[in-house]
């Protein structure tokens, strides 16, 4: 029973977690709008959600094996950099690479934050987060109705 | 809850922008100061921002790396009556460009406001999350 409840909520839960991460990335971009040479970042939400959903079933096994199998070189100290984006590295969110956005209008100080785009994405992401919350809330409500049977 | 990180990120940006605003106001206030604390002509100051990575890969804060002095030469103004004038009657005035400083001020205050809004949005999202299932 509990397993079924968990399964029912997993999609929205994963989506909410990713939206939260994306909101954080966009907030960092907005905060660094005046930092020279800062490169704006983002994730491909669609791909991130798909990979998060496929991972969540066998989470413990896949992430551990991916970390050891994907890296050809062994890191002997924590100061070693990982060559490319992998699960758990600094350049990925739950196995999805953090991408760089292309500036529509290049800026003279090397900053690629397009404020209009970022604000747009930020508001959009916040709305979708709240939509997911509403969906989850209504699922919980319907489950309560079923349990109470009144 | 990674949403709490947004408070740290936006907070760091707000403090960096307010430091920038502080530097701008000191430049404008000293636009006519022929002597500064070290006895020489006042020089315009600028803040240098730097991205500050955190433990979480998704969030990057901001900090003021250093405050640099404008290396442009001081403006020489002919004013023989001034006690600070040299033997040719010229006074070294600060290299503060007031128009540039005003633009800097507007940019800093707008960036500050944007970060306040970011923080408010994160707060709304957190409060909505707290009412989940009620």
Apparent shape of chain B:
elongated
Largest sheet of chain A: 2 strands, antiparallel
Instruction: Give the neighbour order of strands across the main sheet of chain B.
Output: 1-2
Number of helices of chain B: 2
**Secondary-structure element pattern of chain A, one letter each:** HEHHEEEH
What amount of the residues of chain B lies in strands?
A: 15-25%
Largest sheet of chain B at a glance? 2 strands, antiparallel
Count, helices of chain A? 4
Total beta-strand segments of chain B: 4
Percent helix range of chain A: 55-70%
Structural Rg of chain B: 21 Å
* Low-confidence runs of at least 5 consecutive residues of chain A: 58-71, 85-89
The largest contact between protein chains, plus residue counts on each side, is: A-B, 34 and 38 residues
Strand content of chain A: 5-15%
Radius of gyration of chain A: 19 Å
